[in-house]
Amino acid sequence: MPNQLNAQKYIQEVIEKVKKTNADQPEFIQAVEEVLPSLAPVLEKHPEYMEANLLERFVEPERQIIFRVPWVDDQGKLQVNRGFRVQFNGAIGPYKGGLRFHHTVYLGIIKFLGFEQILKNSLTGLPIGGGKGGSDFDPRGKSDAEIMRFCQSFMTELYRHIGPDVDVPAGDIGVGGREIGYLYGHYRRIRAAFENGVLTGKGLSYGGSLIRPEATGFGVTYFCQEMLKHEGEVFEGKTVALSGFGNVTWGACIKINELGGKVVTLSGPDGYIYDPDGVSGEKIDYLLEMRASGRDQVKDYADKFGVEFYPGEKPWGVKVDIVMPCATQNDIHLEHAKQIVANGVKFVCEGANMPCTNEAVEYFLENGVIVGPAKAANAGGVATSALEMSQNSMRLSWTEEEVDQKLHQIMVNIHNNAMKAAEEYGFGYNLVAGANIAGFIKVAEAMHAQGNY
Ligand SMILES: NC(=O)C1=CN([C@@H]2O[C@H](COP(=O)(O)OP(=O)(O)OC[C@H]3O[C@@H](n4cnc5c(N)ncnc54)[C@H](O)[C@@H]3O)[C@@H](O)[C@H]2O)C=CC1
Ligand SMILES: O=C(O)CCC(=O)C(=O)O
């Protein structure tokens, strides 16, 4: 009992301090408030972690780098953006996590993503620490040459902070194969060395891994398949509401179709589309064109395939069997969660990072909806990045089947480990709490073993 009281009190104190010292970073506070309360039983079992004030160290990044990114646009005008890399926790491996190029990026977004990444990377079972980076650069409407110049300038500063054994960035919103190519080319030029383990998500011709582009979408679908299996159900014949139309949504569409499910919605910042026949075949290929166009609008899909477009709306009112938000954070608020529950949805599986507000997740759990939390469900992307790092170190390439089979097994393991941790610590089949606990245990052990850093 005393430990129980202590743990809860200690967690509250740490949360209060995070709120006070990061008051201008609501997304980071949200991520911390979601994770910390579920760690109480772990701290009760390990009072030594409280004595060593491990949690306060856990919520403070090891290093935050903020830098100027000057670049010249096609009109010859000098533009300036802000670059970020947050090296959050390196206790179990080199910092690992994507770069986001989006106009909304600021320190609070990068910190919430980096914080989530610590637990996610731990859940993969692979030796990778947590980090994240990006810029408020807006790729919309930029030419290829502008994107290249921006990436080169970004790397001109970033290169000194990263390395195959130090910090290994990859893609996220607004950063895909093209951007990784420009970033790597510039890194190689500055370093005068072929150190391709420094970035993942590379093209196949210079050390990329098969299946990495599909991995996050495949992974979230494999994870959802395990959630369905737990309830004695399958994808076959199920309708699915997806949001976004980018990399994760694309991969999820492919795998859901393969498993016999039907994707009926996509979305963008401009609204959502409803396709009652399902997003399949050439329609899935078209998502790649939409993303590459830099227009960032889902209406293009409606125009091309003659389906309904709902401007300014989200897809969460559509009656489906499964909901998979794959666009961005806080896409599903409490009012959407109420609609989703009222529609009888039993499964919500998060492809994006923190796509549901904490209130929405609580409402789902209270109403018996099974939630696949992002840090577990979308870990297939970073897991396959770690497989890319392994291939780079070994100087060899695995086949598509080999990578996919490893990815699939990793997703099954993550699901089972989250499920077991939740059961062991008294949360039942609550994958949200289970993922937090299972991810935390390994990092906490490593931090504690390494002294008071
Ligand atoms: N690419 C990866 O390997 C991984 C990505 N994620 C997460 O998945 C989500 C999607 O990332 P990607 O598909 O890689 O990016 P992307 O750049 O390929 O696609 C992003 C999609 O989200 C939509 N979007 C962005 N901001 C929006 C807003 N404010 N309102 C509505 N729609 C918006 C865009 O229109 C686009 O369809 C992000 O939360 C990302 O952090 C998570 C794990 C790995
Ligand atoms: O593959 C990676 O390292 C990054 C993936 C990522 O950014 C994420 O998991 O959110």
TrEMBL record:
Family: Belongs to the Glu/Leu/Phe/Val dehydrogenases family.
Record's subunit section: Homohexamer.
Family matches, as PANTHER family: NADP-SPECIFIC GLUTAMATE DEHYDROGENASE 1-RELATED
Alphabetical list of InterPro entries matching this protein: Aminoacid_DH-like_N_sf, Glu/Leu/Phe/Val/Trp_DH, Glu/Leu/Phe/Val/Trp_DH_C, Glu/Leu/Phe/Val/Trp_DH_dimer, Glu/Leu/Phe/Val_DH_AS, Glu_DH, Glu_Leu_Phe_Val_DH, NAD(P)-bd_dom_sf
A GO CC term attached to the entry: cytosol
Binding site for NAD(+): T216, N247
GO BP terms: glutamate biosynthetic process
Pfam families, alphabetized: ELFV_dehydrog (PF00208), ELFV_dehydrog_N (PF02812)
Annotated TM spans: none
Protein name: Glutamate dehydrogenase
NCBIfam families documented for this protein: PRK09414.1 (NF006929)
A GO term, aspect molecular function: nucleotide binding
Binding residues annotated for substrate, in chain numbering: K96, Q117, K120, G171, S385
Lineage: Bacteria, Bacillati, Bacillota, Clostridia, Eubacteriales
Marked site: Important for catalysis: D172
Keywords on record: NAD, Nucleotide-binding, Oxidoreductase
Species of provenance: Crassaminicella thermophila
Gene3D superfamilies: Glutamate Dehydrogenase, chain A, domain 3, Leucine Dehydrogenase, chain A, domain 1, NAD(P)-binding Rossmann-like Domain
Signal peptide as annotated in the record: none
Active-site residue list: K132 (proton donor)
Residue ranges annotated for the Glutamate/phenylalanine/leucine/valine/L-tryptophan dehydrogenase C-terminal domain, each copy included: 209-451
